[in-house]
Amino acid sequence: MLITSTDNDKIKEYSKLKERKYRDQTGEFLIEGPHLIAEAYRAGIVKELILEQDAVLPLNAPTIYVTKDIINKLSEVEAPTNVMALCRKMETKEDIGKKILILDGIQDPGNLGTIIRSSKAFHIDTIVLGENTVDVYNPKVIRATQGMIFHINIIKKEIEPFLLSLKQLDIPIYGTKVEYGKDFRTLKNKDKDTFALIMGNEGNGIRSEVLDLCDSYFYIEMAPDVESLNVGVAASIILYELDRRD
Amino acid sequence: MLITSTDNDKIKEYSKLKERKYRDQTGEFLIEGPHLIAEAYRAGIVKELILEQDAVLPLNAPTIYVTKDIINKLSEVEAPTNVMALCRKMETKEDIGKKILILDGIQDPGNLGTIIRSSKAFHIDTIVLGENTVDVYNPKVIRATQGMIFHINIIKKEIEPFLLSLKQLDIPIYGTKVEYGKDFRTLKNKDKDTFALIMGNEGNGIRSEVLDLCDSYFYIEMAPDVESLNVGVAASIILYELDRRD
Questions:
Q1: Judged by CB atoms within 8 Å, which residues 170-199 of B form the interface with A?
Q2: Residues A68, B202, A229, CA angle at the centre, nearest 5°?
Q3: H or E element: which one contains B200?
């Protein structure tokens, strides 16, 4: 099927997916570029390929062909490629595993994407998004994950009741603070096999009522005249350290 | 002095500083927000404060007052604060120290800013920007550094001749590769006191002719189905590891 009008009903529907509201309503979202599409395909969530007339993608999925104008209308980047895809959101797994990362109010899409990418690299089983966290299907988030979003379990929870449920399971909860607390390097190997690590908002860190529910507090040692690291960097360094075995 | 017209000559000159060409010509750049201005002031590079009429900043510097329209014209963010400053570029130090980070073609302003911030946190003495690296005075870079850009020595060099000069000084050159190479954790304490670490471009890594000049190659161990980390994250983890003493 070739669609040539940007006023086509299907294209108008797809265009609405730029807004979180419509992504939430439909359970669908758009991605662009061959690399992301390949990763989504590998995860089995591609519903339809949206290809510019002359584009070729050797994937077995329903396909519509469109004009460059339509790609430009659907795309969220300045210089779009000629391939996009409609995807359905990932299914979430009930089994959250033993290595859990909890995000309390991450607001910047690039930071969330980076954290998801690093979580996959350092063997996190489940990422828990608290209230006030940016939409994980925001296109900027997806781009920053480099497709790793499609290969890790991501769930949404209200953080406080979720932490109480973790306590029932005897999963230790690690909080992060810019200062005080213990150096992460003091963690023993056995403390790295099962944990829930919490990272907080870019400006304000972890909310105090959430900090109160942590079992222990850690920080990253750094030069004294530096206030803090970027939260994506801080999370990644800690995940790297928790993945390290002495 | 109160300026009320966006057509004022001074304001028109300042507005040009959004372009790299004019920053290079004048050696000046604009910053916004109280936090960045405080850091620039601490570094002694604020030439003039640009305050909205009702704004107060308790700093001892020449000041002009302007309207909200002028702030909006000069600002590069969606929701500007009411304080900006004209700064002169940092002076560079001839003495590059013993811990050097070399960037070969970092293109994303956020990545460069994050790397500068982490470099300060983990005791890098000098950052060397190779050809094809994004302008360090790009406003997005400066924001992402959280002001740390004003407190670290940053110089521009052609990388290949610079590496040859490092070899004369017997400074070991560490290259990074996504795979192969040694794990950074194998480095001894004595190998962490003097070094030049090279990080490469987001998409392509370090250019092969630059890689050829490295003395040893390292990588970060991670899950096998993850291709790579964000370069700002990778640089930060390595700097963290190089700052660590066993």
A1: 185
A2: 120
A3: strand B195-200
- Whether B240 has its CB under 8 Å from any CB of chain A: the answer is yes
What is A60-85 written as a DSSP string? Answer: -S-EEEE-HHHHHHH--SSS--SEEE
Residues of B in contact with A144 (CB under 8 A): 230
CB-based burial, A180-197: b 16+ in 10 Å, e otherwise: ebeebeebeeeebeebbb
User: Rounded CA gap, A207 and B222, in Å?
Assistant: 31
Report CA B209 to chain centroid distance, whole Å: 24
Mean pLDDT lowest among A128-142, A204-218, B58-72, B175-189: B175-189
Cα of B224 to nearest chain A Cα, Å: 8
Global ipTM: 0.92
The helix or strand, by DSSP H or E, that contains position B30, with its residue range, turns out to be strand B28-32
Asked if A53 reaches chain B (Cβ–Cβ under 8 Å), the answer is: no
Check whether A163 has a pLDDT greater than 80. yes
Both tokens of B127, joined, read: 């950052």
Indicate the residue type of B207: R
Nearest residue, CB atoms, A117 vs list B185, B230, B244: B230
**B240–A237 C-beta distance less than 8 A:** yes
> Comparing C-alpha atoms, which of A182, A118, A135 is closest to residue A21?
A135
Q: Would you call A207 an interface residue with chain B, using a CB distance cutoff of 8 Å?
A: no
B120 near A CB under 8 A: yes
CA distance B166 to B24: 27
> Is A144 an interface residue toward B (CB < 8 Å)?
yes
Q: What is the largest CA-CA distance in chain A?
A: 61
CA distance B12 to A133: 39
Q: Would you give the end-to-end CA distance of chain B in angstroms?
A: 57
- For chain A, the average pLDDT equals 95
Q: A167 — phi, psi (to 5°)?
A: -65, -35
Is residue B88 pLDDT above 70, yes or no?
Answer: yes
User: Going by C-beta distance under 8 Å and a sequence separation of 6 or more, which residues neighbour residue A89?
Assistant: A23, A27, A28, A29, A45, A137
Q: What is the pTM of this model?
A: 0.94
Strand partners, B195: B99
**Residue A57 per-residue DSSP state:** -
Nearest CA in chain A to B144: A230
First to last CA, chain A: 57
Number of H helices, E strands in chain B: 9, 12
User: What does chain B come to in residues?
Assistant: 246
Closest residue, chain A, to B224 (C-alpha):
A121
The whole-number average pLDDT for the span B44-48 is 97
DSSP A54: T
- State the DSSP code for A111: H
Which residues of chain B does A119 touch, with a Cβ-Cβ cutoff of 8 Å?
none
